[in-house]
Structure formats: structure tokens, C-alpha cells
Amino acid sequence: MLARRKSRRVALLHCSLLAAALLGTGRPAAATAAAATVKTVLVLGDSLSAEYGLARGAGWVALLTPQLAQAGVAASVVNASISGDTTSGGRSRLPALLKLHQPSHLVIELGANDALRGLPLQMTQDNLVAMVRAAKEAGARVMVVGMQLPPNYGARYSQDFSALFAKVARDEGAALVPFLLAGVADGPQSEQWFQPDRIHPTAQAHPRILANVWGVMKPWLR
User: Rounded to whole angstroms, how far apart are CA atoms 90 and 165?
Assistant: First the structure.
């Protein structure tokens, strides 16, 4: 009788240990699955995204983090923007950034400095296409952020410049923000939204800029 009771206790102990082992292996798997759902949004931009002339944390990219949290989107934001950068600069930097951060989503906000320098529009378009394709090959979804130029650059050049962002997004299957500075640069009394250089928006303008991006980004992330 004692031998039978002892045998039963040993069997129960083995079952308990087996169950604990199975549960134990399940926890890391669940944690890994949860971690896999966390998105990484990489922003590759110029001074409009690099907080030029602003206090740190005041730009639209910094404001994106609390916006994501408020919307219940599990995502981290990496701001790889550099003031003065062009599409050529972004194209050269992107491979290392993709390897380092392995983003699930890439936002390309480049091109304005190309136009300010009078660079050929075809070069700008080619660079954007190359960046979109490189990101997609790395497994990231891509958003192209469009820009517009003031009329003093000439009607034809300005029209072709603004149109190339939509063309790249359409041809390459990327999301598109038509105009980053909508409601800021094209509204009445627009000067109030800009720093004295009349190029870079003030901190007060960046929530509006974020709203322009967020309207496209929210469904894009989901």
C-alpha cells in the first residue's frame, strides 16, 4: 500500500514538473510574439523633421510618439532626419539605417533641399524610387511625404516638383502625404507659422504638420 501511494506521488510530481516546463516554455514564446507586434517607424527627413530652430521635443516627429500612445499603437519612433539633407544624402544613408533599426515602416520626408538647390527633378525622383525599393526589399512599408514650392520658382518647375511625390508613391505602391505643410504654408497669414527665415515652421505649426501626417499614417500603421 505504501509503495503504491509513493508511486502515485512520484507520478503526480512528474506531471507537475512537465506542466511547469510546458508553461515555462510558453512564456518566452508569448513575449516574443508580443515583441514582434511592436512597430518601428523610421523617419528619414531634413530640417523640417529635424527640429531646426526648435526646442528638442517640439517637432512633429517627437510629437508622434505620444500620438501613437494615445491611439493605442505599439510603435517606437526613430528620427534619422538631418538638417540640409537631400534625397541623395538620404539614399546614401538609408542602407545602414535599415540594417541598424530594421524598421517596419519608413517615412521619407526629403526633396525640399533638392529644389532649393535647383537640382534636376529626375534625379530627385530616381533617388526617391531607389529609397522606396530598398526599404520594401528590407521588409518595411513606405510613406512618401510630399512638398510644394512657392510660385517664385516658376510655375512649371513647381508643378512638376509637387507631382513627382505622387508619381513615386503611386508607381511604387507607397503611402502618400500630399503636402507636409498643408494649412501652414498655404493658408492666410502663413507668415505667423514660420520662423524669421520664412522657411522653417515654428513650434506652434508642428501640431498641424503632425495632423497632416497622422491622417495618412493611422490607417497605414494598422
Answer: 15
